[in-house]
Amino acid sequence: MGRWQAVKTRNPMRVVILPTEQEASDFAADFIEKLIIENENAVLGLATGSSVLLTYETLIKKYQSGEMSFKNIITFNLDEYIGLKPNHTKSYRHYMNQKLFDHIDIDTKNVFIPECFNQDYELSCENYESKIRQHGGIDLQLLGIGTNGHIGFNEPTSSLKSRTRVKTLTQNTITNNSRFFENNEVQPSIAITMGIGTIMEAQNIILIGLGKHKSKAVADLIEGPVSSFCPGSVLQNHRNAVVVLDNLAASNLKLYDYYIHTEKMYLKYMC
Ligand code: F6R
Fold first, then answer.
1. pLDDT for 215-244, tens place per residue?
2. Which residue has its alpha carbon closest to ligand 1 atom 15?
3. Strand 79-81 relative to strand 190-193: parallel, antiparallel, unpaired?
4. What is the DSSP string of 135-147?
5. Which of 153, 173, 248 to mutate to test the pocket of ligand 1 (most atoms within 8 A of CB)?
6. Which of 78, 89, 222, 236 suits 149 as a labelling partner, its CA being 20 to 30 A distant?
């Protein structure tokens, strides 16, 4: 059994709780590294936002120290704002360039982000789905979670089978993300996002939850019913999903001690 096989999980979801944001992010970076070492042509699904920042920093360090290469890696981002030019400083393409792609050896022709400027958006969504299929699907999808439980920009009440589409953002998401925009800047309120059905087709999923402000969404995701009210809860039905949390994000979990125990058992018997 290869190393990557060894870290794979089976239903139910693996919940990993680590003391700090840095340790949780390093865990996610190691997880991604293992996949890439097993498969240098892997297809990664990537996210933007604060939760993945330290993970990207750790991946950059791993690349700089010669531990890993992204030369043949293909990436698909979860989402992009409609109406922002790709080079707009608040576009997710710009974020990805700044936070990851400009610092590693990825081939820019292998980078896919929904086309969201001056497009036929419906066609753009269909093309995105077919590009994912052409590349054989996503091997590992990286996710954050919104305080309202969204994954990608699949807001509460999104269909659990939804595909890549245009989505209107909730006021909660707009308010949370206003921190990335200046006062005089227009903040988009619609976006293209991979659907929940699209995300669930990834072979492996790792979701990062950091900070007290995520603790309710995280508890709904792990311990709530599977419901479109908390889109992240659908991961309970994924065959290979890992949720990695810092202690603060895990602080609302009713079965906190149980997850600590099961992870110890997992490490003892499965790795
Ligand atoms: C980002 C994305 C979103 C974020 C979520 C958490 O591409 O799809 O689902 O992962 O909004 O955002 P942060 O990490 O900024 O709290």
1. 999 999 999 999 999 999 999 999 999 999
2. 49
3. antiparallel
4. TT--SEEEE---T
5. 153
6. 89
